[in-house]
Amino acid sequence: MTSTFFQICSLFYVVMLTLQYYSRKRINNIENKIYSCLIINVLVELILDILSIITIRNADKIPFLNQFVAKAYLASLISWLSFFTLYILTISIKHSKKDIDDNILREKARLYAGVLGLIYAFYIVLLSILELQFVSNQNGIYSCGPAAEFSYAVAGLLILISVVNVLRRIKTIPRKKTIPVFIFVFVGLIAITIQMSNPNILLISAVDAFITFLMYFTIENPDVKMIEALNLAKDQAEKANRAKTDFLSSMSHEIRTPLNAIVGFSQGLLEEDLPADTKEEVKDIIDASDSLLQIVNGILDISKIEANKLEIVNTEYNFEKIFKELVALSKGRIGDKPLEFRYSCDKTIPPVLYGDYVRIKQIVLNLLTNAIKYTKQGYVDFTVNSVCKDDVCRLIISVTDTGIGIKEENIDKLFNKFERLDLEKNITIEGTGLGLAITKKLIDFMHGNIVVQSKYGEGSKFTVALDQRIIPKELDELNIPAIEDDNKPFVSNGGKILVVDDNKINLKVAARLLRAYNVDVTLVTSGQECIDEILDGHKYDLILLDDMMPKMTGVETLLNLKKIIGFNTPTVALTANAISGMKEKYLENGFDGYLSKPIDKVELENILRKYLTDMDTKTEVPPKEDKLEDISYLKDNGIDVDASIELLGDKQTFLSTLNDFLEETSERLPKMEQYRKDNDMANYAILVHAMKSDAKYLGLTKLAELSYNHEMASKKNDKDYVDEHYSQLIDELNHMIAIIKKYLGKE
Ligand code: ADP
User: Fold this and answer.
1) Residue located nearest, by CA, to atom 8 of ligand 1
2) How many CB atoms are located within 10 Å of the residue 604 CB?
3) Going by DSSP bridges, is the β-strand pair 449-455/459-470 parallel, antiparallel, or unpaired?
4) Residue 436: CB within 6 Å of ligand 1?
5) H or E stretch including 318?
6) Which residues have a Cβ under 8 Å from the Cβ of 647 and sit 6 or more positions away?
7) 438 lines ligand 1 (CB under 6 A)
8) Which ranges of the chain have pLDDT less than 70?
């Protein structure tokens, strides 16, 4: 008797498989679509197989139904094989080339499905025509005849197509996807052999079910719900991380402001006549604040790095100056430890290099500070070597100490953030475990390398290799002040400084610090007040301008100041935003310098030295009083004096601005002509733009309008317009110059 044992067992696990498969949301890819057809197909196939066994047993009672069910079963066998072939064709295309576009894959799969569908339709037509016979023997009845044989032939063809395709792409299709095919061929051959020797044992649908089951583990079948949950968790974690970063940087910023007050006032106190022990205490306050500042800076840096906001800012720098500064700073940190500091530097290193010297300083200072911190006695050796090739100089910087050393098993942990090693020994040494984490990240950012060698109890050696570009310049071509050797404190002869900060305490600190330099300090609390000061005609030798101010930031204030003609007061940014790279940003924004808060005395002094030393050279043309009276001459010649005075604040400023205008124009005019001749419309646009705003400020309405037209045209690279209207612009300019000169008595 034909048994339904295999079919019922298969049906059981295929039902389980179906439930498992559909219980999850799947990714909507072509593989999954074909696979779901295979599962449904095998379910139907197994049911039809069981039904056909039942109807065959009763063939004489229900001959038509028996024919129908048996043929339907055969049809389901072939359709399963068609889906299987489609699956094989699709994956062999998918893995034929790398990263095949999903849409192309879908299109190809659709094409294959169409061809296979046609073959299948043809098969169904023939199957319905051909006769299916039933043979009975002592074990039961089974089907045979043309319909069955034709079905086996189609099945053989489909299996052949699948196997050939897999063999053709055997190298590119992932191994696990080819396994079901080979197992199918192998198990299928065994099943056919068994079935041929005993036709009553029906195994084909059980084999299909088994292969479908196997395929479940090979298709790309991720659980979409789980992926969605993971993505959500990842998003939330990223958000939390961002919030942490924002919190840390705003906290650090908030901490810097009161710290500024502590350091500033303490430094001020040091200049007072205090008892020796009080002075010592004040120094301790400064040291403690300095440590706190290092921590805040470290947190700011690491949060920047983690938020991927760290920027490497490359500039030209004087190698010797930077490294000498490092030596001086490190020596200062040795204090009264019995430590020898050795420094040797390769004399062939080119004087001017191009790279991020702020970061290089940070890296080397971290290593030197650690070497000093973790060494009780002996020496710290700082050696700089180089290997130069073409325009690249590889700096090989090594810091060796005779300190506590690092255990071998700890070397890998050195660069983890917040990781402090050997705590039992280091418990008294201050640190956050951030220094080397930042150092490593910075070196990675600069495509450099760091190597650590250490013997526990004997000492450590940190070696860093960094490539820097060589700038073939001499030092004096570089706009870097020479290394200051004189240690005389700087005292100005009454320089005027305007300090702008919305925070009153910061203003007091600045005033306190500046007291030592014999300067005349004016304090204002907003960008607008600063602009008003300048518009009111007050002259300063230096402006210290805070950036983070409500309403108008320092950068915006400076932009507005620059619009005032004749404004050329050096302006230094003053900010608690002490992230490295800021200095270059402020310089790019037009500032002449940068001071981070808490204000470092040495840096402040450098700035004062730079801008207050030769202030006498600035000349101002005192307007002649009588000129103020016959201003109607200008009005009669079309100059909108009233509007200008309103913009500039007063007549005095108006007159001195007229002077500035003449000077600026005499420089501007030949350049304009040159740019026009060279077809350099970009630079031409910059000059006419400047002329437009000057003209506007001075009430030279027509000139402003013509300059504006030229600015627009040159921005659009419309050289024809510029050439055609150039003489008109120059005529108007010369006309105005003549009037102003006549008026100022400068003819
Ligand atoms: P911190 O010094 O603030 O603790 P670092 O990240 O700079 O953090 O260093 C991490 C750890 O590596 C230190 O806590 C210390 O245990 C070890 N370490 C760093 N430099 C040296 C050194 N030169 N000698 C011995 N141990 C060191």
Assistant:
1) 433
2) 22
3) antiparallel
4) yes
5) strand 315-318
6) 696, 697
7) no
8) 1-3, 97-99, 137-141, 199-200, 220-223, 245, 249, 418, 422-430, 474-489, 576-582, 614-630, 647-650, 653, 747
Burial of 735 per CB tally in 10 Å (0-12, 13-18, 19+): middle
For residue 324, the surrounding DSSP H or E stretch is helix 319-334
Distance CA 212, CA 206 (A): 10
Rounded Cα distance, 396 and 467, in Å:
9
Q: Residue with the nearest Cα to atom 2 of ligand 1?
A: 431
SS3 of residue 576 by DSSP: coil
Peptide bond before residue 351 is cis, with ω within 30 degrees of 0: no
By C-alpha distance, which of 434, 399, 433, 437 is closest to 415? 437
Q: Is 718 in the pocket of ligand 1 (CB under 6 A)?
A: no
H/E run at residue 596:
strand 593-596
pLDDT confidence of residue 393 = 92
Cα 638 from Cα 624, distance rounded (Å):
22
The C-alpha atoms of residue 27 and residue 222 are separated, in whole angstroms, by: 7
Q: Ligand 1 in contact with 420 (CB < 6 A)? A: yes
d(CA 651, CA 628): 7
- The whole-angstrom separation of Cα 217 and Cα 208 is 15
CA angle 616, 618, 624 (to 5 degrees): 110
- Ligand 1 binding pocket includes 399 (Cβ within 6 Å): no
DSSP bridge pairs for 26: 223
Helix or strand (DSSP H, E) at 545 = strand 542-546
Q: Is the CB of 460 under 6 A from ligand 1?
A: yes
d(CA 544, CA 260): 15
**For strand 542-546 and strand 496-500, is the pairing parallel, antiparallel, or unpaired?**
parallel
How far CA 275 is from CA of 161, 205, 230, 269, in Å, comes to 99, 102, 64, 11
User: CA-CA-CA-CA torsion for 632, 636, 641, 642, nearest 10 degrees?
Assistant: 80
- Are 55 and 69 in contact, with CB atoms under 8 Å apart? yes
Residue 78 is predicted with a pLDDT of 93
Amino acid letter, residue 75: A
- Which residue matches tokens 């630079």? 683
Which one of 399, 401, 410, 420 would you pick to mutate in the ligand 1 pocket, going by the greatest count of ligand atoms within 8 A of its CB? 420
Q: How many CA atoms lie within 13 A of 54 on its CB side?
A: 10
- Cβ 200 under 6 angstroms from ligand 1: no
Q: What is the DSSP letter of 551?
A: S
**Distance between CA atoms of residues 223 and 24, nearest Å:** 6
> To the nearest 5 percent, what fractions of the chain are helix, strand and coil?
60, 10, 25
Segment holding 140, helix H or strand E: strand 140-144
Q: Which residues contact 717 (CB under 8 A, 6 or more apart)?
A: 681
- C-alpha distances (whole Å) from 656 to each of 71, 93, 312, 732, 744 are 107, 79, 43, 21, 10
The reported pLDDT for the residue numbered 396 is: 95
Q: In the block, which residue shows the tokens 């240690």?
A: 487
By the 8 A CB rule, do 88 and 167 touch? no
Using an 8 Å Cβ cutoff, are 74 and 151 in contact?
Answer: yes
Q: Which residue's C-alpha comes closest to atom 7 of ligand 1?
A: 435
**Residue 236 is encoded by which pair of tokens?**
């939330």
End-to-end CA distance of the chain: 128
Nearest ligand 1 atom to the CA of 436 is 6
- What is the predicted pLDDT for the residue at 241? 75
Give 578 Cα–ligand 1 centroid separation in angstroms.
Answer: 24
DSSP annotation of 223 reads: B
State how far the Cα of 535 lies from the Cα of 18, in Å rounded to an integer.
82
* Number of other residues whose CB lies within 10 A of the CB of residue 231: 10
